[in-house]
Amino acid sequence: MKSTQIILFSIIFTFFCNTSCSQSVTEQNPTLEEKIGQMLMVGFQGFSVDESAHIIRDLTEYHAGGVILFDYDVPTGTPDRNIQSAEQVVILNQQLRSYSQSPLFIAVDQEGGRVARLKPARDFENHVSAEYLGLLNNEDSTRVYAQKMSDQLQNLGFNVNFAPVVDLNTNPENPVIGQIERSFSSDPDLVTKHAKIFLEEFSRQNIIGVLKHFPGHGSAWNDSHVGMADVTETWEDIELEPYRNLIASDQSFAIMTAHVFNENLDPDYPATLSKAVQTDLLRDSLNFDGVLFSDDMQMEAIRSYYGLETAVKQAIIAGVDVLVFANNSVYEPDIVPQVVEIIQTLIEQGEISEERINESHERIVTLKKSLSDE
What is the pLDDT of residue 17? Predict the structure, then answer.
């Protein structure tokens, strides 16, 4: 579909939704359940909302604050998930917004190269890998590709992109980073430079860029999608440099956690579930006060080692603001009501305080308001 047509569809549906559907999150006096719902991002199957009854329920009854779209459905092993064509994605994203009573995070993983949910095979713009841009190391070229990516995301109706990757390529044999060209470089200054360009272009189009994977996944020898990645012997403090540099800049962005275990940072929990990593290190030491997304809570590194209640509890205690349940490692249509009930019970039992929920809700509302103010 031509870009002018995509823009026309986007304008029409955005006008309809903005004038008749969503309320401003700042105009409500949210209940505790609504605040909890805002902390959840969920994936679903279907090219339209009508194909997945649970996503309508999750948005309307449980107030889920975000959704994530994929092109490939791992549980069924088919390319029939959420992304079929540009016109279809525009309509789907506006349908999703129409069911949400507050501004909705609509996310995608569009890094470029191997990790691209918007593929040329379905007539989307081709986006090169981070490694390609890092080796080229030309700021003008990076900006051209970043502009194309951000323009496409905006035209399609996305407002969150889980990119850029700021993991250092310290282990080129890393199966989930180095081997599939997701890192700009092993040089933290070069990574910072190119990531900053992407963040600037995302901001220009009102897209939230999400740096990943904190505190660093580049040195791992295994894939946290299929098991626990232990970086105790390989992780180095230099992997924090891109975060430190970008937090000190004037850029607006969110951060995603890593499902990596590092005994030197926390002897008990992987980074996503670690207060020592996500609060003591990221928030207190590096001074990050923005929204923190978990990596997918259904990945094997979390799901196989911790029960759902423990994982949810520890992630919130760690400082995570938005728990991501992508429903694309396993498919659990009732995951949102299950997690809402778990969090409510943990609050009733005094395991998690309402103040902790309010902290996350405040960050989420602030970020969503920044989008509506643009």
Answer: 44
pLDDT tens figures, 139-157: 999 999 999 999 999 999 9
**225 among known catalytic residues:** yes
Q: Which two tokens stand for residue 84?
A: 């079929």
Distance between CA atoms of 369 and 359, rounded to whole angstroms? 15
Kindly compute the dihedral angle of the four CA atoms of residues 150, 75, 51, 12, in this order, to the nearest 10 degrees.
Answer: 0
Q: How many helices (H) and strands (E) does the chain have?
A: 13, 12
Tell me the percentage of the chain whose pLDDT exceeds 90.
85
Is the backbone of residue 210 left (phi > 0), alpha (psi -120 to 50) or beta?
beta
Pairing verdict, β 105-108 and 160-161: parallel
Give dist(CA 222, CA 225) in Å, integer: 9
Task: Choose, from 295, 296, 321, 361, the residue flagged as catalytic.
Answer: 295
Summarize pLDDT for 189-226 with one digit per residue, the tens: 999 999 999 999 999 999 999 999 999 999 997 655 54
d(Cα 364, Cα 103) in Å, to the nearest integer? Answer: 10
Give pTM, 2 decimals.
Answer: 0.93
191: buried, middle or exposed (CB in 10 Å: 19+, 13-18, 0-12)? buried
Q: Are 213 and 219 in contact (CB under 8 A)?
A: no
Residues 241-271 pLDDT 10s: 999 999 999 899 999 999 999 999 999 999 9
- Nearest-angstrom CA–CA distance, 35 and 364: 10
Class of residue 260 by CB neighbours under 10 A (exposed 0-12, middle 13-18, buried 19+): buried
Q: How many CA within 13 A on the CB side of residue 188?
A: 12
- Calpha distance 66→1 (Å, rounded): 26
41-373 maps to which CATH number?
3.20.20.300
How long a stretch of residues is the chain?
374
- Nearest-10 Cα torsion for 295, 298, 299, 305: 110
Contact 204, 211 (CB under 8 A): no
